[in-house]
Write a structure and sequence with these properties.
By secondary structure, this protein is mainly α. Helix 2 (about 25-30) packs across helix 3 (about 35-45). About 45% of the residues lie in helices and about 5% in strands. It has a two-stranded parallel sheet. The chain is built from five helices and two strands, in the order αβααβαα.
């Protein structure tokens, strides 16, 4: 496992219930701000193995990125169960619900 992959897993595991992060936010927190697509791949391939709260990661607009109806519906239900609100267009207010991990100082 690469150091970046390990960091992504740790960042996603740290997202508390009732909060979300964007793919780009996860990439930034893991040390590679331009690697949002890699975060998607890691989520896709490792969510089950590492029991990642995959449903807490959304796109930069605050929307569910999954296009498969069942998976997107599941994600929305999980988030709503955690108290996250969607507006009429299906957008999460990132100012209210986005998690900002504390940066570790060396």
């Amino acid at each position: 496992m690469t150091p970046f992959t390990k960091q992504v897993i740790e960042v996603i595991q740290s997202i508390p219930e009732g909060k979300v992060m964007t793919y780009g936010g996860v990439a930034r927190a893991a040390g590679s701000p331009r690697a949002a697509r890699q975060v998607v791949r890691i989520l896709h391939s490792m969510s089950r193995k590492y029991k990642l709260p995959w449903h807490r990661v959304v796109n930069a607009k605050g929307m569910i990125a999954l296009t498969e109806d069942e998976a997107g519906t599941m994600q929305r239900l999980y988030l709503e169960d955690e108290g996250i609100l969607f507006d009429i267009k299906g957008v999460i207010n990132l100012e209210q619900f986005q998690y900002q991990p504390v940066e570790i100082q060396d």
